[in-house]
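Reopening this one. Same input as before:
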Amino acid sequence: MQFQQLLYFVAVAETRHFTHAAERVHVSQPSLSQQVRALEKELGAELFSRARGNIALTDAGEALLPLARRILADADTARHEVQELVQLRRGRVRLGATPSLCTGLLPDVLRAFHDLHPGVQLLIEESGSHDLVRELARGSLDLALIVLPLPPASPALTTVELLREDLVVVSPPELRLGGAPTAAAPRRPVRIADLRDQPLVMFRHGYDLRELTVAACRAEGFEPSFTVEGGEMDAVLGFVRAGLGVAVVPSMVAERAGRDLQVTPLARPGLQRTIALAHRSDVAPPRAARELQRVLLNTRAAVL
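Same output, byte for byte:
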């Protein structure tokens, strides 16, 4: 099995057309077809059903496709690793992070890293933890900041706990949660149970904060009521500013949200989330990614 054959196979699988695939990889169509046939012969199975005008993956092709993509991604990572200079004058890091971390933690971290290594390209993938775990497994990311615990049936990942962060409630300034403030307690903590009669602005499905908030409400014996749901972090904060409800968000996000939102802590024991830095266990991160990992771990030491 040759690397070039896998490249041609993936091109055909993604375009569903031999001529278009050949154009993508810059070879003649007969050469590409010949290499795909050679790959099928070596594997002892047809990878495509070639009905007239319709190219479809066979069961064998479906099984090979994610593995081939991963091999190609690993080869691409190796190529960049070799090409990096020892002084880190160039390179790239593909980092995944949840939207809340992109808003709260990453700006300062990436600024510090860029000051040290201005020639390193930073590619940021913003998504939920479940999606980021899948992207790590596919080899599309070098590192990811995810929320623990890992989802069930996760691939083999190495994780390092970065920090534990309190969650808080944000609301419009005119809404007084947990009773009227006093001079001694200008922001009296609220209990999860106090949210029973409060309309919530809720994140989309698959969002870690959504799952954590809903689980906490159910533990208190009630189903939360949503006025708006389905947003990302910036949208949720905007809906709260507009007076549509309250939201449970990370404290780092709340600190950057501005004075037009009221931030109220949760009463003990409160809610926390654990942020970890993850990478694939079977592949060492590239040099530039390891340097970013060092900066992030130094941030952990400063925060904890």
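So the earlier flakiness isn't reproducible anymore. For the record, Confidence is low (pLDDT under 50) at residues 180-185.
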